[in-house]
């Protein structure tokens, strides 16, 4: 949802709150289920808020995903995590600042 510049989403059990300067939100899903070998199954959710926020989540297992924000890797997220992205595009996960993997 995008309400007056504050976007919220709940994806894979993870809550997101993002400040944006423009309206609009989109989402794209990609699921490949392997019923013979469940470990080979994958799920990806890519969503955008406004003009400059793109978040991608790639499943690792039933409770953990890889978190990619604007094409930069930000590590893993777990079911129940809360992610906040402010006006300056700083990322907090559960109240703790998180930097892209290349900067940590």
Strand content is: over 45%
DSSP summary, beta strand count: 11
Tally of helical runs: 0
**How far apart are the termini?**
30 Å
Which segments are poorly predicted (pLDDT under 50) over 5 or more consecutive residues? none
Assembly state of the chains shown: single chain
Helix share, percent: under 10%
Structural class from helices and strands?
mainly beta
Question: How do the strands of the widest beta sheet line up side by side?
Answer: 1-2-3-9-10-11
Query: What would the average pLDDT be, to the nearest integer?
Result: 81
Largest sheet: 6 strands, mixed
Radius of gyration: 14 Å
Which word captures the global form? globular
Q: Give the ordered list of helices and strands.
A: EEEEEEEEEEE
Please explain how this structure is put together.
This protein has a six-stranded mixed sheet with strand order 1-2-3-9-10-11, with no helix packed on it. It has a five-stranded antiparallel sheet with strand order 4-5-6-7-8, with no helix packed on it. The model has no long low-confidence stretch (mean pLDDT 81). It is built from no helices and eleven strands. It is an all-beta fold and 104 residues long.
Give the key terms:
104 residues; 11 strands; 5-stranded antiparallel beta sheet; 6-stranded mixed beta sheet; single chain; 58% strand; globular; 0% helix; mainly beta
Question: What's the topology here?
Answer:
Elements: E1 2-3, E2 6-11, E3 14-19, E4 25-32, E5 42-49, E6 53-59, E7 64-69, E8 72-78, E9 82-85, E10 91-93, E11 96-98
Parallel strand pairs: 3-9
Antiparallel strand pairs: 1-2, 2-3, 4-5, 5-6, 6-7, 7-8, 9-10, 10-11
């Amino acid at each position: 949802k995008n309400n007056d510049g504050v976007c919220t989403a709940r994806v894979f059990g993870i809550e997101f709150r993002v400040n944006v300067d423009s309206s609009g939100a989109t989402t794209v899903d990609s699921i490949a289920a392997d019923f013979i070998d469940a470990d080979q199954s994958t799920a990806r959710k890519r969503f955008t808020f406004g003009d400059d926020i793109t978040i991608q989540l790639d499943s690792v297992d039933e409770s953990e995903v890889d978190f990619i924000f604007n094409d930069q890797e930000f590590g893993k997220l777990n079911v129940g995590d809360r992610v906040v992205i402010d006006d300056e595009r700083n990322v907090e996960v559960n109240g703790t600042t998180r930097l892209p993997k290349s900067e940590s």
